[in-house]
């Protein structure tokens, strides 16, 4: 018979504002650490690392998921460090992974990818290589910032408030200078873009650049002017190649990272691609087509701005550029495909485009572990064998992941596609 003591009563269900003491198990996509309550409910804790004993405050309760925020670390993970950047202490949410030692971050990210592959693609033993370490500070050549009272900063970890920063450890120094010293009157959001190897700088201000005050060398453009057709660009160098990058075109976070990514793609494609029939899906300004040295690449990209840049960057090659969504492109046979979609991944349209080429090797570049796992499962479903994943840590100090997965076409499908 129950004594009715509090020890026998079931614990109150977690509710927002309540506290939980938890043991974290692993990181999940997005950078939170997963833990379970005593009765098995999943809790995703912001600010925690795997293998920690922590105290957290519940921020959200859903049917199958509780979200919580770290309040106190009772037993830290071996990887935990005090962030070196003072702005983290002030609440800046730009570097949500600065709580882990830089040297430990690639392996922590590799574990997130392994977990996504296990859970989503049911692949337990695909090798995932954490990759080489890249500079963890002063690397970012594109910085997107919010503006408060004419000064740039980043969203707070805890709210949507803008934390105006007095420095930024991860920004390239010439971008950090514009972040800190620039005056952005009447601006809501600013994108600062610099060429680390050319010294060129650009500021894109939203909604208008009328109130921007930065040094004279900086090209300044408003999104209102871009809408009216004005063009503005800088140049960057990667692997000895010069790239034009316009205000509205995508470019990788830093030139060293872009080189590491090209190297990983080259390995995935199995060697030199100069004479190969190469399809560059989601090709942007032509990074892979240019840097892989392909004589006659086919590039598919829907952004008009990126295609205009690619046309300049690929001058002298027999490139064929398709300014259209991958969904609308009619695949042509190829030896090799590099596909570098946005966060949502290939989806069924991208998978159909890849399959339609019957390429013997595919390098899939993914920036989201869940879409990587979904795309891998879909490519396996149409006859591709995943060989391995190599991470390229393009965004040290943040939870962002970049990964290159190698696929080989299985023989029966290749024959079927060739018929
Ligand atoms: C992650 S970026 C990669 C660009 C390039 N591969 C690079 O490394 O610089 C993805 C690119 O895909 C383009 N894109 C996004 N969705 C697309 C679609 N459905 N069809 C074609 N291009 C798309 C974007 O405009 C962007 O340039």
Describe this structure in words.
The protein has 419 residues and is an alpha/beta fold. It folds into three domains: 1-79, OB fold (Dihydrolipoamide Acetyltransferase, E2P) (Beta Barrel), CATH 2.40.50; 102-135 and 250-418, Rossmann fold (3-Layer(aba) Sandwich), CATH 3.40.50; 142-236, no CATH class. It contains ten helices and 23 strands. Strands 6-22-23-21-20-17-18-19 form an eight-stranded mixed β-sheet, with helices on both faces. A six-stranded mixed β-sheet has the order 9-8-7-11-12-14. A five-stranded mixed barrel has the order 1-2-3-5-4. Helix 2 (105-121) crosses helix 9 (369-381). The protein is globular. The N and C termini lie far apart (76 Å). Residues 250-252, 282-285, 287-288, 300-303, 306, 325-326, 340-342 line the site of S-adenosylmethionine.
Individual helix count: 10
Arithmetic mean of pLDDT: 93
CATH topology of the largest domain: Rossmann fold
What summary fits the major beta sheet? 8 strands, mixed
Notable features of this structure?
alpha/beta; OB fold (Dihydrolipoamide Acetyltransferase, E2P); Rossmann fold; six-stranded mixed sheet; 10 helices; 23 strands; about 30% strand; disordered N terminus; binds S-adenosylmethionine
Blueprint of the fold:
Blueprint: E1 19-27, E2 33-36, E3 42-46, E4 53-61, E5 66-75, H1 86-89, H2 105-121, E6 128-129, E7 142-148, E8 151-155, E9 162-164, H3 173-181, E10 183-185, E11 189-194, E12 201-206, E13 211-213, E14 218-222, H4 223-227, E15 233-238, E16 241-246, H5 255-269, E17 278-281, H6 287-291, E18 298-301, H7 304-313, E19 320-323, E20 336-339, H8 347-357, E21 361-366, H9 369-381, E22 384-391, E23 403-409, H10 411-418
Parallel strand pairs: 3-5, 6-22, 12-14, 17-18, 17-20, 18-19, 20-21
Antiparallel strand pairs: 1-2, 1-4, 2-3, 4-5, 7-8, 7-11, 8-9, 10-13, 11-12, 15-16, 21-23, 22-23
Helix pairs in contact: 2-9, 8-9
């Amino acid at each position: 018979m129950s004594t009715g003591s509090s020890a026998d009563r079931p614990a109150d269900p977690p509710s927002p504002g309540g506290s939980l003491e938890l043991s974290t198990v692993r990181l999940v996509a997005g950078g939170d650490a997963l833990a379970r309550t005593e009765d098995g409910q999943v809790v995703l804790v912001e600010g925690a690392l795997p293998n920690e004993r922590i105290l957290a405050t519940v921020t959200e309760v859903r049917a199958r998921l509780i979200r919580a925020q770290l309040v106190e670390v009772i037993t830290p993970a071996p990887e935990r460090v005090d962030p070196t950047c003072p702005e983290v202490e002030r609440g800046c949410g730009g570097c949500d992974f600065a709580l882990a030692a830089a040297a430990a971050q690639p392996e922590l990210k590799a574990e997130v990818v392994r977990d996504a592959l296990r859970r989503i693609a049911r692949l337990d033993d695909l090798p995932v290589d954490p990759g080489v370490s890249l500079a963890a500070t002063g690397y970012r050549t594109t910085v997107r910032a919010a503006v408060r009272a004419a000064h740039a900063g980043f969203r707070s970890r805890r709210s949507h408030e803008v934390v105006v920063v007095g420095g930024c450890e991860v920004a390239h120094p010439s971008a950090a200078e514009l972040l800190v010293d620039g005056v952005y009157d009447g601006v809501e959001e600013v994108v600062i873009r610099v060429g680390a190897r050319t010294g060129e700088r650009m500021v894109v201000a939203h909604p208008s650049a009328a109130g921007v005050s930065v040094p004279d060398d900086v090209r300044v453009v408003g999104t209102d002017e871009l809408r009216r057709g004005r063009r503005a660009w800088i140049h960057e160098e990667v692997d000895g190649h010069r790239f034009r990058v316009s205000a509205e075109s995508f470019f990788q976070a830093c030139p060293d990272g872009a080189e590491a990514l090209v190297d990983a793609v080259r390995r995935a494609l199995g060697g030199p691609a100069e004479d190969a029939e190469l399809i560059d899906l989601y090709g942007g300004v032509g990074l892979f087509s240019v840097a892989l040295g392909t004589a006659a690449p086919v590039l598919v990209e829907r952004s008009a701005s990126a295609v205009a840049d690619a046309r300049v960057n690929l001058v002298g090659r027999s490139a064929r550029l398709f300014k259209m969504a991958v969904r609308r492109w009619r695949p042509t046979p190829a030896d090799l495909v590099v596909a570098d979609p946005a966060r949502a991944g290939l989806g069924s349209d991208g998978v159909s485009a890849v399959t339609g080429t019957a390429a013997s090797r595919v390098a899939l570049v993914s920036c989201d572990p869940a879409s990587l796992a979904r795309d891998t499962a879909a490519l396996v479903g149409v006859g591709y064998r995943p060989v391995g994943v190599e991470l390229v840590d393009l965004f040290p100090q943040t939870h962002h992941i970049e990964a290159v997965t190698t696929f080989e076409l299985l023989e029966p499908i290749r024959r079927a596609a060739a018929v």
